[in-house]
Amino acid sequence: MFSSIKQFINTLLNIGFEDEFGNDLNQKHVVNFSYIIFCVGCLFLIAVFTFRQMYSITILSTLGLLVALVGLRYNFIGHLFRAQILMPIIKIFQTSILSLFYFGTESGFHWFFVNVIAYALVVFRTDRQAVKYWVVGISLALFLLCELTDTNGLYLNSTDQELSVILVFFAVSFNFAMVINLVISRLKSVNQHLRILAEKDELTGLSNRRKVLADAVNIFADSIINRESCVFSIVDLDHFKKINDTFGHEAGDLVLAKVSAMMASVIRPQDEIGRYGGEEFIVIMRGTSIKDAADIMEAMRRSVEDMLIETENGIVIPVTISIGLAAIDPGVSRYEEILAQADKGLYVAKRSGRNRLSVQSDYQN
Ligand SMILES: Nc1nc2c(ncn2[C@@H]2O[C@H](COP(=O)(O)OP(=O)(O)OP(=O)(O)O)[C@@H](O)[C@H]2O)c(=O)[nH]1
Fold first, then answer.
1. Membrane-spanning residues where (predicted)?
2. Closest ligand 1 atom to Cα of 237
């Protein structure tokens, strides 16, 4: 129930946004949210004061609602600044007229100016400093005016005003909580997105060197603590320089991308693969014996050998890989030593004619 309400609110906030990680999305969400809340507030006022036959507030709130719908539409169709600026204008008008003339300053209605100030601070960034200061200044001045003057409401008696203070308190707090929540959740998802970008190799879509080495450290430590077998493997494309020289750098990139996708499809879900650099890759197979790891890597070697990678001109590029393998040894204390062993295996595989794998480990299980 709660999650479906949250999803509904998210859908409302996201209407009209295509770029999920755009720079100004945070502001757009806050603007959207402010309009939606403003519309709900206007509908509430229309219902209450129509019922009480105080039609001038009904008319005023209906006008506010219509202008808010225009602002909401501006936000949806991409006129962000117009939408941003219209919101505080209608909110300032509504709050001052209702506070000073209709409800009376004792109603506490002018505390909505605090929401306008918070809105301006979140929504107007460095390129709109002047607008921000104007909105904050006017809101502050009107807030102080309402605090210092003592006007009686035309429409609210003192009991109504006491009720109004409570309602305003909850509405202002809710607005605050929602805006903070919006900003924090956006920051979280943008951070996560940036982290994924920082860990991914752009060309191949695999983990980049930093990520795969970080995984190597963690998996190595886990395996040592849990006394589990774990195999590290280094894979290198054969004669890749020749592929670049013969077919061009672009074709070389295509080969790297296709071979990476193939390798990622051959390993098991629990295995890790990442681009170590250039045409070299690391595969980490936790909880795996050296024999099983060798079987997986042999299947990978064969799959790559059987690939038919075609250039734009329809020429098929032959590709093979060489593989070095090493398992965690009880005497080893650093993951770099296992990688160095696997690298030795790779060297042997290259020296023995390429397109093969070589195991460099005494630790059999
Ligand atoms: N197209 C392309 N080439 C790359 C990329 N990264 C590295 N290379 C090239 O990969 C080639 C690697 O060449 P070498 O280290 O001599 O290795 P090799 O030709 O594969 O020879 P062996 O490993 O001995 O079989 C170099 O020419 C690099 O310029 C890349 O992202 N794209």
1. 30-49, 55-73, 133-151, 163-184
2. 20
Q: Does 26 have pLDDT greater than 70? A: no
3-state secondary structure of 228: coil
pLDDT digits (tens, 9 = 90+) for 314-364: 889 999 999 999 998 877 888 999 999 999 999 999 999 999 999 986 544
The answer to the question of residue 203 being in a domain is no
Closest Cα to atom 29 of ligand 1: 241
Q: Which of 235, 254, 279, 281 to mutate to test the pocket of ligand 1 (most atoms within 8 A of CB)?
A: 279
| Shared-domain flag, residues 280 and 166 | no
Instruction: List the structure tokens of 255.
Output: 């080969």
Q: Give domain status of residue 309, yes or no.
A: yes
Together in a domain, 146 and 284: no
Ligand 1: residue whose CA is nearest its atom 28 = 241
**Under 8 Å CB-to-CB from 215, ≥6 apart: which residues?**
207, 272, 274, 284
Ligand 1 centre and the CA of 236: distance in Å? 9
CB of 244 shorter than 6 A to ligand 1: yes
- What's the CA-to-centroid distance between 211 and ligand 1, angstroms? 21
C-beta 239 within 6 A of ligand 1: yes
Number of separate domains in the chain: 2
Which of 194, 221, 237 is the last residue before a domain boundary? 194
Last residue of a domain, which of 163, 194, 225? 194
Chain segment 39-65, per-residue pLDDT in tens: 999 999 999 989 988 888 899 999 999
Report the CATH number that the domain containing residue 303 is assigned in CATH: 3.30.70.270
CA distance 78 to 141: 31
Measured CA to CA, the distance from residue 254 to residue 293 in angstroms comes to 27
Q: Is 122 in the pocket of ligand 1 (CB under 6 A)?
A: no
User: Candidates 206, 234, 235, 240: which one to mutate for ligand 1, based on the most atoms within 8 Å of Cβ?
Assistant: 240
| Interval 203-222 mean pLDDT | 95
CA dist 197 and 173 (Å) reads: 36
The number of helix segments (H) and strand segments (E) in the chain equals 12, 7
